[in-house]
């Protein structure tokens, strides 16, 4: 079978089977890799089974791919190093390379704070260990469990709000400003959070971020007045919006063609 035919088969397979992975990951090591060439990245998916089969039973890794971004998930540093070498071999065969400057490692699990041996490429370059990584706009933190962080979401939210206020703050009514913020800035705050496990503290932090904007807009710190204004203008707190989005996300997850996605929702 020619490479072009294999790519066509792989594309059809992706359309049927590939879904979003948002389940909680426990006691795992992650490596985020970025490839610098895009033309034949789809061909790498053909050889994923060969990569995983090179490891012994009980050490099966998890490889998450989207476009030219690859995440390697492994239960140990040793398996992670072997997996990286094998991926490099397949990528080199395809004429592709790993951008070491944009690649990093992170540990999630009971020993997340332990000092780990450096992961190196076949060329001897080391991949740094990070306490926080970004993947498609979602920030994942080194923790005892799979955990997202929201400080960048909040910074982006306030940046968007300030841009709106800077453009129309003096000429637009409160109703117009609220509509703009909740249609343009709120999606920035809640981006991707429906796929992450949030604690009560995280939920309160989201509501506090919204309330800070409302406090500035209406010139009051009385939460009863803020709630009355939300009811009057028909706006919802972020946690209520997020709850609806999470229900929709899980429903799509359960109806996915990917058996792994359906299994994670059971």
- H-E string: HEHEEHEEEEEEHHHHHH
Total beta-strand segments? 9
Shape, principal axes of CA atoms = elongated
Strand content: 5-15%
CA radius of gyration is: 22 Å
**Unreliable stretches covering 5 or more consecutive residues:** 6-11, 13-28, 34-42
Name the structural class.
alpha+beta
How can the largest sheet be summarized?
Answer: 4 strands, antiparallel
Helix fraction bin: 40-55%
C-alpha termini separation: 38 Å
Could you tell me the mean pLDDT?
A: 76
What's the total helix number?
9
Spatial order of strands in the largest sheet: 2-3-1-4
List keywords for this structure.
alpha+beta; 9 strands; 266 residues; four-stranded antiparallel β-sheet; 47% helix; three-stranded antiparallel β-sheet
Q: Would you mind describing this structure in some detail?
A:
This protein is α+β, with helices and mostly antiparallel strands and 266 residues long. The chain contains nine helices and nine strands. The protein has helices at 3-17, 48-53, 77-93, 151-168, 174-189, 200-218, 223-233, 238-254, 259-264, and strands at residues 28-34, 62-66, 69-74, 104-108, 119-120, 126-127, 132-135, 138-141, 147-149. Strands 2-3-1-4 form a four-stranded antiparallel sheet, covered by helices on one side. A hairpin with a 2-residue loop joins strand 2 and strand 3. The chain is elongated.
